[in-house]
């Protein structure tokens, strides 16, 4: 499944959360496809030099797609028979971290298409998730709403080293962040990232229009400066919802 519409922005609602909740504007449903990115340092240059090392769970959310505070979301697994128990249990463990930081809970209820959140482990399907309450739309009837890819670190081998486990944890937290309604942190207007687009396209293998369109949706396109659409904190490069841009 691929993203079907461009994302769009961020506004600081810490002082007026109810105003924003009552003025939300819904964006079209979409699945956000996520990858860890390794690119040369010259590809981007940010003017925002602030780093908050305690902010990994800071985020910007698509307001119309957030859940009612205190909600418990049912979660099921598709194709679990082919997935090691250690992988399943680690997904549960890391997903629950969100509940320690926010008033939202997950209830893992079993296998098949029975959960509100339905997780597949399709090899080659990428790590991706529906955004917030989009999972309830007919677009996702009879389908998974999240994929965790065994070919992209969601496997038992990753759990056998501290480094691998850290990557596994990062991916699960990121995708469950989308479940809560979070958007990509680097796509809010406050990010102020200056991209060398040609080099980004090259780094991602953007040789076809379809691939370039996917890169545009997941990297370059920003949400509009409208807190009725997206609300959140200032841009934070350490957010779990930020793509990882590792210098080479």
From TrEMBL:
Coiled-coil intervals, chain numbering: none
InterPro entries, A to Z: MetalloPept_cat_dom_sf (IPR024079), Peptidase_Metallo (IPR006026)
An example molecular function term from Gene Ontology annotations: zinc ion binding
Top-rank taxon, per record: Eukaryota
Domain (Peptidase metallopeptidase): residue spans on this chain: 63-225
Biological process, per Gene Ontology: proteolysis
Protein name, per record: Peptidase metallopeptidase domain-containing protein
């Amino acid at each position: 499944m691929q993203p079907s519409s461009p994302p769009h922005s961020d506004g600081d609602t810490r002082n007026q959360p109810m105003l924003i909740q009552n003025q939300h504007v819904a964006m079209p449903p979409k699945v956000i496809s996520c990858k860890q990115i390794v690119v040369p340092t010259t590809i981007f240059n940010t003017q925002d030099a602030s780093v908050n090392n305690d902010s990994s769970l800071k985020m910007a959310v698509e307001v119309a797609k957030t859940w009612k505070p205190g909600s418990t979301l049912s979660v099921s697994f598709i194709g679990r028979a082919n997935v090691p128990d250690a992988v399943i249990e680690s997904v549960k463990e890391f997903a629950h971290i969100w509940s320690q930081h926010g008033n939202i809970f997950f209830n893992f209820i079993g296998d098949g298409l029975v959960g509100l959140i339905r997780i597949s482990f399709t090899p080659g399907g990428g790590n991706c998730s529906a955004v917030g309450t989009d999972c309830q739309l007919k677009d996702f009837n009879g389908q998974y709403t999240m994929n965790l890819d065994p070919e992209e670190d969601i496997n038992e081998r990753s759990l056998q080293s501290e480094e691998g486990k850290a990557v596994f944890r990062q991916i699960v937290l990121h995708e469950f962040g989308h479940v809560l309604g979070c958007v990509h942190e680097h796509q809010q207007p406050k990010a102020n990232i200056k991209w060398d687009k040609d080099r980004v396209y090259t780094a991602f293998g953007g040789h076809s229009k379809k691939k370039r369109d996917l890169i545009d949706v997941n990297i370059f396109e920003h949400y509009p400066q409208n807190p009725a659409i997206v609300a959140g904190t200032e841009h934070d490069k350490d957010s779990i919802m930020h793509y990882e841009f590792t210098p080479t």
